[in-house]
Amino acid sequence: MEKKEDNRIIRSKRDLRGAFMELIKDQPFEKISVTDICKKAMINKMTFYKHYQDKYALLDDCIRAIAENIYLACVPDADIEKRINENPVDLFVDLLANAMTECYQRKEILLSLVYGNNTSLRFVVENCSKKIIEQLMKRLSQKYEFRYPISIITAFITGGFANVITECLIMPAFSIETLNSYSRTFFNDILDSKLITK
User: Fold this and answer.
1) pLDDT digit string (tens) for 65-110?
2) Could you give the CA distance from residue 16 to residue 34 in angstroms, rounded to a whole number?
3) What span, in angstroms and rounded, lies between the C-alpha atoms of 129 and 116?
4) Does residue 30 sit in the same domain as residue 85?
5) Considering 10, 37, 52, which residue would you say is the last residue of a domain?
6) Same domain, yes or no: 9 and 90
7) So what's the pLDDT on residue 81?
8) SS3 category, 77
9) pLDDT band per the 50, 70, 90 thresholds, residue 138
10) Which residues contact 90 (CB under 8 A, 6 or more apart)?
11) Do 41 and 112 sit in the same domain of this protein?
12) How far is CA 118 from the centre of its chain?
């Protein structure tokens, strides 16, 4: 019985997020009301308020869900151990390139959701990138000896990566292919230069 209730909650939240994301494609966030969202989702207001305090809480949940979906789409396949042993840098850059591609594929909805709030956009990009970078840095530490704590290197790389992607989503100056190429060269150069390795 409890599992059924959990499924209903999951379904209701999913429907509310879906309705909200449909609405935000056509009108600004400020103009969307809880009534509009409920009507579109075919869910009553009482159910909405069981799950969300207001439309801002729903917006936050949508942003978190998108960040999580981007991350899950970038999770490596079953041969990760083999790839780490063969060439961890290539794997690292491939995962970041996947994150970049996933962000670009969701560009329209990301830009609609953040309605000009670059901090929220950066949160989405940084959240998925950080998870990937943290995992890979731990794995790379088995092959390389780092000069600095992994947490510092992770924060540094994540911040730079998130800023570049955020800027390029807002004002595209480079193609996704060019950015992926730069990323590969950049990370290889960092490791070769001994900037972060001993």
Assistant:
1) 887 777 777 665 566 667 767 776 777 777 777 777 877 887 877 7
2) 10
3) 21
4) no
5) 52
6) no
7) 67
8) coil
9) confident
10) 83, 184
11) no
12) 14
pLDDT of residue 167: 77
Average pLDDT over residues 146-165: 85
Domain membership of residue 21 as a residue range: 2-52
Whether residue 183 sits in one domain with residue 103: yes
Whether 47 and 111 share a structural domain: no
Which DSSP string corresponds to 1-29?
A: -HHHHHHHHHHHHHHHHHHHHHHHHHS-G
Q: What is the pLDDT of residue 127?
A: 76
For residue 61, being part of any structural domain is answered with no
User: Which amino acid is it at 63?
Assistant: I
Q: Which two tokens stand for residue 177?
A: 């292919």
The residue whose two tokens read 């969300």 is 52
| pLDDT tens sequence across 31-74 | 899 999 999 999 999 999 999 999 999 988 887 888 777 777 76
Cα-Cα-Cα-Cα torsion 17, 20, 24, 28, nearest 10 degrees, comes to -120
For residue 78, the model assigns a pLDDT of: 60
| Sequence-ordered list of residues with C-beta below 8 angstroms from that of 181, at least 6 positions apart, any chain | none
Q: Tell me, yes or no, whether 178 and 112 share the same domain.
A: yes
Say which residue the tokens 């056509």 belong to.
26
In a domain, 168, yes or no: yes
The one-character DSSP state at 106 is T
Domain containing residue 13: CATH number: 1.10.10.60
